[in-house]
Amino acid sequence: MSTNPTSTDYDNRRVDVTGTVTRADGTPAPNIPVTIQEVVRFTTWNPWGDPIDPTYYEPRDLGKPVSDANGKFTIADVDIDHVTGSSLLNVQHEVQITALYDEDGDLNTPQDGYYADTTVAADPKSSSVTYKVNKKKVKAGDILTVQGKVTFPKGVEPQGTEVFLQTYWEQEYDVKTTAEDDGFFVMSVRVSGYDDTFELRTAPTDLYVAGAHQPLPITNTSLLRR
Question: How far apart, in whole angstroms, are the C-alpha atoms of residue 168 and residue 216?
């Protein structure tokens, strides 16, 4: 299976997916229904080093073409994009296209299932985030306020961009907000005695706009007294 083109970008998001089904002896297999999916992948938040899947998968069905007399199948004009309302925090900008044929339709009998996949690069535009904090030294009980702005390339709207504030290494974020139409945001969090990692992350709503990441120059003096 392959796609044409093999990469996409902000202005060009469509590809044609083609493939061939063959028998074990290499001859074409006609009249085979093939389930095609797009899988948007995310990097799993895992600061602990546990043996868990480092990738989270969000699939959607693209169709079920039937192979022709030469074993070939095609889906034209596939939109390589993120179409659900889920957050794009930690999204990977390489989308997977999968093809699956299962003889009896039961995925629990894998001995009669056949699988292929390929990837399509989704080259994003860059974005940035600037910020101001109300204090650079904090202690347990203080209210830390961060205000800032997300900036996108000309012609791209920042509206709806999620902004996440992390304060502790085990948690990816402790509070989140959504940028206004002009890209501005403000968020506050009550500092705990164990907070030790202060970072901002953004997640645009468009797969083709990359998020931004900024460590914050915050020192928790409560940690120094422990």
Answer: 12
pLDDT of 104: 66
* pLDDT at residue 192 greater than cutoff 80: yes
| Single-letter code of the amino acid located at 125 | K
Distance CA 84, CA 131 (A): 29
3-state SS assignment for residue 71 = coil
Instruction: State the CB neighbour count (10 A cutoff) for residue 135.
Output: 13
Q: Name 96's bridge partners.
A: 39, 119
Q: Does residue 176 contact residue 187 with C-beta atoms inside 8 Å?
A: yes
Cα four-point dihedral sign 70, 30, 21, 40:
positive
pLDDT digits (tens, 9 = 90+) for 109-155: 766 678 999 999 999 999 999 999 999 999 999 999 999 999 999 99
Of 107, 111, 118, 90, the C-alpha closest to 3 is 118
DSSP codes of every residue in 26-51: S-B--S-B-EEEEEEEEEPP-TT--S
Instruction: Provide the H-helix boundaries in the chain.
Output: 221-224
Cα separation, 146 vs 173, whole angstroms: 14
**What whole-number distance in Å separates Cα of residue 23 and Cα of residue 43?**
36
pTM for this prediction: 0.91
